[in-house]
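Exercise: predict the fold of this chain.
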Amino acid sequence: MSLLRRNWISTFLSPHRVELVHLRRHIKSAQAEKQVAACEGADEGTAWGAALAQLKRMLPAGTGAEIHILLSNHFVRYAVIPPQSRIETPAELQAYAAFQMREIYGERTGGWELITSSWDPATGAVCAAIERGFLQELEELAASQRMKLKYVEPYFTSVFDHWHDRFGKGRAWFALVETGRLCLALLEGGAWLRILNQRILDDVEEELLVALEREALLFSGPAGTSGQVCLFAPEHPGLTLPEGSGWQIVPLEDKTRPAPAHYPFNNMTRTATPDA
């Protein structure tokens, strides 16, 4: 068996920039460096067209590398799939998820590819939706560059999977903030209760606080409008909530478990560290 491993490329795609990590694996060493480039014509065409075009300009051709793609939450829609004891097969789960997505987003879901998390009849699941045309373009781009498209993953679910054991078994608030976008989720006993994915229009701190208070009122009543929120916001270092608000931020990233190399950095020139 060969001791050499396939080189791989991990990339983060957002409407306004592309971040790319190229890891070359040898027998005894692995080096990774990050490239970052703004998307040209980001306000023109489809929501993802500029990011796709920029990725094409950045990818090396003919390397035979694997490529992993992390999608900004600007490109993904989410929904909680409630528990249902009668779901027994993958086909039934897919049909149930499609029904729930249509209830929320309407008939436009017909053009979306639905990706469902691990299913538990007692706790439900999460469904992520990505435009089918976008996925097809990514597959064609990888093939044209002679690369193997390993996976396409939503940013929100990737962050949750990376730190999932830090949310505990009780009630937990989880916030992911990126440039221009806030995702906020509520879990209880390992079950998803709510996912909010919205644009940030002005002040990050204010909009996070408003979202927390609104969602807490909806699910907890006035007595539950405070607590801890697990936060990952690498593009907003130092993000805090006002003293006296009743909310305390608990950062997910620390020295014991740093973010993977292909996650967005707040410092656009920083050299990446390979994933553990």
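Check your answer against the key: Helices lie at 49-58, 90-105, 132-144, 155-163, 204-220.
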